[in-house]
Amino acid sequence: MSSTIQPTAPGARARLADARREVYRQAIVEASEAEFADNGYDDARVQTIAKRAGVSLATFYSVFGGKWEAFRAVQQDRLAALMQQVGTLVFAAEDSFGRLRAGLEGYLRFHIEHPSFLRVQLSERVPWGTTDELRTPEQTRAWVTGLQMLTAAFREAMGAGLLVEDDPELCARTATAMSQVRLVRWMDRDMVERADAVAHAAMLQFVRTFARPDRVAELTARLG
Description:
The protein is mainly α and about 220 residues long.
């Protein structure tokens, strides 16, 4: 008795091709992140990325046009995940100080949980306090959006009488710089300090820097 193998429907073939392409894409993005972390953008090589990903050069170029597109994909994926993670934490917070804490701690924790991505950012060697020399549109959009969110949180906390009255945007930029310096220090110290300890120390410094003197004890107590 013979059996007839039915040909795969065009729609099914397309779905299989899309699934295969997504597997390749994820492998290449992860390999690209590691390569950019180790060597920086300028010295990274497509051949090395492909080898790390376990794919051929032909497969690499079937997914990305080149090193630039792979770098943008790393930024796009990681920054989207960062914004989603931080946004979820901020949305769940109950008051202005809680939202500030959620945003700042979420930012720190994400980078500590993704040290290769942090190394990619540091390898760019650009001042984090400005968008002038950011390499990709994804970096610029994330930076601007994050600054707007943090500025709004500062403005709200100042209105609630928790923080010293000042320029909210300047305070947001300062707080961001403080977080970034702390991440550099964490990396320089071999990344052994736990995320909880880094976040707690950062928030203590935040309270000492920005809180109204009559609210310091209250906000410190909230940190535990």
